[in-house]
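1st attempt posting a full record on here, be nice pls
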Amino acid sequence: MPTYVDHGAMVDLLRCEFSAVADLASGLTERQWDEPSCLPGWTVHDVLGHMIGTESMLAGEPPPTADTSHLTHMVNPIAEANEVWVESMRPLSGHQMADRWDAVTSRRLATLEAMTQAEFDAPSWTPAGNDETYGRFMRIRHFDCFMHEHDIRFGLGLPARNDPADLGSCLEEVATGLGYIVGRKAGMPEGSRVRIDLTGPLTRTFLIEVEGRARVVDSFDQPPTVGLEMPVALFLRLTGGRDDRRSDAEDQVFCSGDGELARHLARHLAFTI
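the predicted structure (as tokens):
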């Protein structure tokens, strides 16, 4: 079933996210631009290059020409397409990257602000599937930009930007994959009842049961067999497949119920590409 997203609220979220990334980029030193991120093969400079490339494609710009044959970290065709944009921008200075981000996001915001709710509700391809809406696509874009903003922050040892509105929208996106995470990625056994409690600036509790297929439910008729509790920001990082160096993630995840199954689930939360 298609997902309908409020146009005004999502444009506001994207505007704030684009601005947060712009503020972050404008304050970086040239040394910081060259710091490695947690994403294989990418520096801070490359992460922003990827973000610029995606927004440029959405703005209708044709992909650049760049030789990526010398790179070895690409794992699928999507990564290869992303890398063309990233490679094309590697010669640019940090100041030029920040300017380019400002320019492309200004164009994108003008387009988004001019759209109507009906256009947001129109059928659209999305990374989550073809039977979706343009609004869902933009919710995914917000999630992706928020995650990449924090790839930069974590790579530089900067604190997270835990705005509840951003976290809430990102959690809505992750919630669509919880059945897949629990049932397929982690392979929780038949009859499992999983409770995930998120703490911090935004609290949430997710209940997932495995009966034939894993699905999110409103309540259990028995105690959970597996429980995880962790900060909401860490949950987003883990479900986003981030492996942050110098992270104390294991110390922030509390397991209950079947400890072995809970630890297995905690190690297999990643579901994004």
